[in-house]
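Before relying on records like the one below, remember that each one covers exactly one chain. Contacts with other chains, cofactors or solvent are not represented anywhere in the record.
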Amino acid sequence: MRRGRDYLYTSLVRVADFHYDLPPELIAQMPAPQRDQSRLLVLQRPNGRVTHRRFPDLLDSLRAGDLVVLNDSRVIPARLRGVKVPSGGEIEVLLAEECGLNDWWVMLRPGKRVRAGTKLVFNDSQGQSTPVTAAVTDKDTEGLCRLRFDGTPNIGDALDALGEVPLPPYITRRPTTEAPDDRARYQTVYAQAPGSVAAPTAGLHFTEPLLAGLRQRGVAVCSVTLHVGLGTFAPVKATQVENHVMHEEHFELTQTTAELVNAAKSTGRRVIAVGTTTARVLEHVAAAHDGCLVEGCGRTRLFVYPPYSFRIVDVLLTNFHLPESTLLMLVSAFAAPGELHGRELVLSAYAEAIRERYHFFSYGDAMLIL
């Protein structure tokens, strides 16, 4: 076994070890009627005990002096629709990563036959043509296209009029289904910095009154920013976990959050990460600075899987994740830090969640690992 800066390598971990079977009807297609009325499965790491609660019961598991860290990234309306010129063929664009002003890597569908120079014209939310256009300037080996936008000073500012909420591919709705307001519900109530193309879903359950309840109990709350990219949905194609190449994501950590976390760790108080994205930021920065957090921004490709020893996070709040995903691997590592049996603990808890008919994935229920 050897350890690199961003990875922990071992020949003992196979991707297939993180597989589980999920009945399709348990994939949440809609959010809970009220944000904080989702269910909450609580997993006790020392003994593997599982209890079933409701999300507001989270308050019962926290105590004065705890520090809750949120990811305040805001989901952008990253799905655009339009036509190719001159063929008129319909296209769908999903923004993936901003390279510069009006310069983006995107997922283009259909995109296999698209070549550099192809021109696109975009529609507004009513399906009407707009002055906003783009030209394909490049294409990478993974099938992403690079677009140069025109007809608007900044495509980012035009997304509210042009874009749609980039719901994950496993959320499908019939045309006759009355859909929720995804612009509000596929967004945390504390979202600030725009940049994500997928929601940091563990935070979707919080309401302003619940956050106020935390503070009233003496629980401090702070935030980091990690812009969730399309890579969060990318399947792990390798057979051995250590051969997977993790995607990069942009993060920011403020001096205030760094000082709050450092103070909590130095005085033995717990740090609660809301979501795997938050956990990755905290652990990435700690790994680069000998366990201490410092203000800064950058990109992380930290890949956490068993066995991994966490430096910062003491409690993890998360949703239920896809089989064989990097998110499930991180959760499994947290269930038994520095050991390999966390996978068994988590998959056993998932099996019970399935028996109890929990809802899974982005709009699904939550899990608290103590």
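Confidence is low (pLDDT under 50) at residues 1-11.
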